[in-house]
């Protein structure tokens, strides 16, 4: 069992995914998006789902917590959202963008499934299907934000 190292292991894996997907020259372009849309959203989402609604309970999943929010586990959202933003922005097809959203939502659900099996996450009146649906909606919102940011950037160069 990974126990309290799960958050760090997943964070390092997320960094690896980001560096495999996002070319080095573009990493700086997506840092703020990753910090705000990734880390910020993860902290708010985990606070709401765990601390306010009580649907999720993380147990011994990380070595560092901030108001019961596992810091490294929340931190993995930053590099993964950076990779998501890069892929969505590079996508030339709405179908491919939809597939990217589905894959990222499925990956979030698989991460929850792994933590459920490991015993580091417990659901209370919640399901993996709910996790997938919530992740799908959140990635749809992130896609919309990337789309708006891209339009604003293009408009500023006109």
Summarize this structure briefly.
The protein has one domain (3-156).
Give the CA-CA distance, first to last residue. Answer: 54 Å
Radius of gyration: 16 Å
- The tally of beta strands, per DSSP, is 4
Average pLDDT across residues? 92
* Overall number of domains: 1
Please describe the biggest sheet, giving its number of strands, its sense, and whether it closes into a barrel: 2 strands, antiparallel
Q: Helix-strand pattern, N to C?
A: HHEEEHHHEH
Given helix and strand content, the structural type is: mainly alpha
Strand neighbour order, sheet with most strands: 1-4
Fraction in beta strands? 5-15%
Helix content: over 70%
Tally of alpha and pi helices: 6
Spell out the key features of this protein.
158 residues; two-stranded antiparallel ribbon; 75% helix
Please provide a written account of the structure:
The protein is mainly α. It has one domain (3-156). Helix content is 75%, strand content 6%. It has 6 helices and 4 strands; from the N terminus they run ααβββαααβα. The strands form 2 sheets. The chain has a two-stranded antiparallel ribbon. A hairpin with a 2-residue loop joins strand 2 (65-66) and strand 3. Helix 2 (24-52) crosses helix 4 and helix 5 (94-118) packs across helix 6. The radius of gyration is 16 Å and the shape is globular. The protein starts with 5 loop residues before the first helix and ends with a helix. 34% of the residues are buried. The model has no long low-confidence stretch (mean pLDDT 92).
Question: What is the secondary structure topology, with strand pairs?
Answer:
Blueprint: H1 6-21, H2 24-52, E1 56-58, E2 65-66, E3 69-70, H3 71-75, H4 77-90, H5 94-118, E4 121-123, H6 128-156
Antiparallel strand pairs: 1-4, 2-3
